[in-house]
Every structure is written in C-alpha cells, then in structure tokens.
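Record type: monomer structure entry
Structure origin: computed from sequence
Chain ID: A
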Amino acid sequence: MSFPRRRESKLNILYNNVINSLDPRLHGDDRTTRMKKIIIIIAGILLAIGVFYFLKTNLFENKEASKLAVKPKQEKTAYNFLLLGYGGGAHEGTYLTDTIMAVNVDTKTKKITLFSIPRDLWVPLPTKSGADFHTKINALYQLELFPKDYPDLKQIKAKTIISKITGLPIDGYVSVNFEGFTKAINILGGIDVEVKKSFTDPEYPIDGKEKELCDKDTEELFKKAEPFITPGFNPDERNQQFKDNPKLEDFVKNATDSPELAFPCRYEKLEFKKGPNHMDGTTALKFARSRHSPDDGDDFNRAIRQQLVIESIKDKVISLGFIPKIIPLMNEFKKDVKTDIGLDIIKKLIGQTDKIKEYGITTFVLTDENVLKNAVSDDKQYILIPREGIDNWKGIQKIINASSSAALK
C-alpha cells in the first residue's frame, strides 16, 4: 500500500515547512544566520509548549501530575525531538506531515543540531502478514493516528520509525497544524514581513472548494469529460468526442494541466508587493504556502518566503516576551498542537530559557545532493531513497552522527 503523490501539497504548517524545505542552495553566513534565527524560534515554541504542559499539569491537574510523576534518573544532557507540521481540516490527507524535522539539543555543550527530512523519503513499515509495505515518510503520523484503517500494519509510531532511520533516539514529538499557525499570528497581532520581491500567484487553492464545478456550463463539460480524465478510457472514442466538440478537448487539457482555468472558483489570485507588509494569520499562511507564481513559485522560493515569516514571528514574540505571554493562551491551541514530551524533559527545557541565545547551531538537510537519490516506486510515485540503496540507512546515520557530537547520546 502506498500514497499517491498529490498535485497540491497539503503542507505545510509553517513552523515546520519552512525548515523541511530549507533551500539547500544557501550556504555560508547567509545560511547560518537564517538557520540560527529559525532554531531560536523553534526552541521558543518547544519551551512555550513545555511551560504550558508543565504548569497545567502541576498547578491545575494535580491528580494527573501524580500519575505522571517519574522516578529520578541519571542526569541527561542530550535530547532529540521530532517536529511535525500538517494541514489539518477535513480534507483528504489531513494528517500528512509535509514538514518533518529532528532536532538534537545538548544542554551541556549548548549545541543544537537540526536535521530536515524530505517528505518523499520512502520507508518500510512492519506488517502482521509479513507482506512488503512501503510509504512516503509524510504518511507516518496519519498511520499512527488511525491504525484501524490499516489492519495489516503493526503498531506505528512516527518517532520510532524516524529514530531507526536517523539513528537518533527520539525523546518526544510536537505536531502543529495550519489553524494553530494562523491563530498564533492573530494572537500576536499580526506580523510585519519585508517581502523581497513582488509576485502574483493565480492558482492558490481555496479550502473547501476542491470539488466545486463553478457553473452549469462547467458542470455539463465535466460530465462529458470525466470519462477521459480517469484511466482506462477508449482513445478512439475520446478523439472522436474531441473532434465533435473542440471545447471539450480544451476543457480536458485545462482540467489536467491548468485547473485554475477549468475550475476558476476553486482558486484565488494572490498578489504581494515588494517591501514591508503587515500580515494577519490568514495572509501570512497564504504568503508562506503559495507555490504557483511564475516569478516566485517553486519550492525553493517558497522556502525563502517561509523563512521570512519565521523571522518576523521571532521579532514579534521577542518584543512581546514570548514565554510569559503565551502560557495563558495555550488552551487556545489544545486542538492544534500535540506533544508527548515528558515532564522531566519539560523541566529541563524550562531551565534553559535564559540560555537559549548561547547555543551554537549546526544544520543539515537530507537531500539528493548528499545522502539521497531520486527514484520511482513500483506504483510510479516519485520517491527519495538512500544512495546506498532502498532501506539502507547507514549513510544517513553516519552523516547525522558526524554532524552532531551529541546526536547519538
């Protein structure tokens, strides 16, 4: 079983997508400076979530706190966290995580190492029947949440699978959806983003209108075209229909290649001007997700825009005093932010709040320019696999270990 490649990415929670799609073309001081800013806000988010769960458990839910109490353990200084970003909502692929990042935090050496994992990485999963089962790594969280939908799969935990791939013992995860991001921006009173270049995106999808047919004429054309849009049609019959009805041929072509022309009501046109722009949560999400501009529309440009948003969030939360301000508001995010980070780790993170700017930063992105290579699955999906071969994670683990002195503690 596998998951087909989607035409429109359902990503992209911003916190994470920024980092997962970080432009591998960036180097040197520019890349380091940008990544330092990103890491600071990521650490801030982790600490804020940690403070909320710690205070909620210890101050308001004493009974639960007693249940969660753990025995003292030997001092630990290195932690690994999994950050997941997903679309949310009620559409297909709600929990596909288009942002996947492993973060190593060493509180002794004050070093943070970031590992971004591409969503198309092809991974094996254990089955009860022993049958071969592979999927893209961005499906792991969804499989974990809905095990009854996949009865032949053994129990799946995204952090366990990713731990085997990276060699990092994952201590806990944090997942965030689009709504949580939008809500956070609005709570902050919006953000100010310095847009680097003007661009227009004529094909930004409108949530909830993915299947709209727009008008009666389009509905009639769609009924006639539908047999020729799905596999298994008769080419001779299609050619005859196209000959008799040229509008039908144009419609089928647009429905396949330019859906914004075939179904204009499904999309909105975005325009952003170069220079300072004040954005509320909805606008910031559109700015970060847009990917069909002829001028600024590929994944690399989108990653740069997402970095601009993260930097703007960082500036705003620092000016407001992020941690103390966010604690009273965390109940607003209980449906949008999930974590299983333990109380002992949370306490340790809280203790590092005043020292976060002292931490050194190391970053690494798994790409087809270092440890991965492009491939095609048996069912014709585009996938990424290790250079050493499918399911061989030794090269990935070696370079991750070499990239972080504390990674495998």
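Annotation 1: The CA atoms of residues 91 and 208 lie 8 Å apart.
Annotation 2: The longest strand covers residues 97-106.
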